[in-house]
Amino acid sequence: MQKQRWYIADNGVYSKLITVMGKKGRTRMAMWLFSEMRNSGCRPDSSVYNALITAHLHSRDKAKALDKALGYFNKMKGIERCKPNVVTYNILLRAFAQARNVDQVNAMFKDLAESSIAPDIYTFNGVMDAYGKNGMIREMESVLSRMKSNQCKPDIITFNVLIDSYGKKQEFDKMEQVFKSLLRSKEKPTLPTFNSMIINYGKARLKERAENIFKKMTDMKYTPSFITYESLIMMYGFCDCVSRAREIFDEVVDSGKEMKVSTLNVMLEVYCRNGLPMEADRLFDKANNIGAIPDSSTYKLLYKAYTKADMKDLVQKLVKEMEKDGIVPNKRFFLEALEAFGSLPASPDSVQATRSGRPETNAKTEVKVIN
């Protein structure tokens, strides 16, 4: 890039390139770009360091990545043109919350409070979302209190994070209180608001509450998305209402809209979870006719269900379909499927054949019939 005399890369270009390399997990390339940038005479700024921190946080070794990120953060403090900004704090706060490092999150908040930088809505939403996904409700509530003390008003993301987090922990009283607060606020619910409540009520087998939320949604003139229908199908599956789940699925098929393979997979999962592998097989046979092309997730969930039910004929049929569709099972595929119900291969050879190319029929049979 720099060899082209007619073009000189600037901080913005390097920052974007470093970010892209980080997202692809190519941390070394990101570091090389950073070094190349300085060698070319281009001086890094806060945006470049933020990109470099983010790149490291995409690496697999999270503990090492956080140490590196903190090192860059401290280095930024000593360079006038690279002082940490609110984006820097937001990146690190979320990362430490994802790592469940409460002490470091509190230390970062203290550092932020002592600086001249004001936190924004993204600061608090990012940390609450990370805590919520980790099931750390009390820590999430602590950040919410901090947000209120900073007189930062919640937006729809804030409400959705709280609703989803409380719902996943089945703290429905709090979830419903937040939903009522949302309806009283200037913010408006979004489809994810309703979808989250439907699926979380379903997991708790609270069918009537889930149905009431869907009714509330339609009364407010919201148009259900395919994710809404998938949430309903899954909800009825959790509540042992398989026939109703199938009715919803058929409505989606008959609507004439593009059929998503994820919707097919949800219906198949409902059948499998409720001990109906034959129904799942019949639907699988119709997949192409309804415009849903099975993917690797389809095959994986069916393989797990058929193997667990010891339905060897269906497993053999499924593997043949995989071959026909050009999906070659590998060692990871079989191990994940077998681990789902606590079984292990009888011998390493039973999965070794899948390492490269198309496995032999005998090798497949040996794996799929293990109990």
Can you offer a commentary on this structure?
It contains 21 helices and no strands. It has helices at residues 11-23, 27-39, 46-57, 62-77, 86-98, 102-114, 121-133, 137-149, 156-168, 172-184, 191-203, 207-219, 226-238, 242-254, 261-273, 277-285, 296-308, 312-324, 331-339, 349-352, 361-368. It starts with 10 loop residues before the first helix and ends with a helix. It has 371 residues and is mainly alpha-helical.
Features:
371 residues; mainly alpha; 21 helices; Pentacotripeptide-repeat region of PRORP domain-containing protein; chloroplast; transit peptide
Give me the number of helical elements: 21
Instruction: Please count the beta strands (DSSP E, at least 2 residues each).
Output: 0
Q: Alpha-carbon distance between the termini?
A: 57 Å
For the CA atoms, what is the radius of gyration?
A: 25 Å
What is the fold's blueprint, element by element?
Layout: H1 11-23, H2 27-39, H3 46-57, H4 62-77, H5 86-98, H6 102-114, H7 121-133, H8 137-149, H9 156-168, H10 172-184, H11 191-203, H12 207-219, H13 226-238, H14 242-254, H15 261-273, H16 277-285, H17 296-308, H18 312-324, H19 331-339, H20 349-352, H21 361-368
Helix pairs in contact: 1-2, 1-3, 2-3, 3-4, 3-5, 4-5, 5-6, 5-7, 7-8, 7-9, 9-10, 9-11, 11-12, 11-13, 13-14, 13-15, 14-15, 15-16, 15-17, 17-18, 17-19
Region (Disordered): 347-371
Family: Belongs to the PPR family. P subfamily.
Keywords: Chloroplast, Plastid, Repeat, Transit peptide
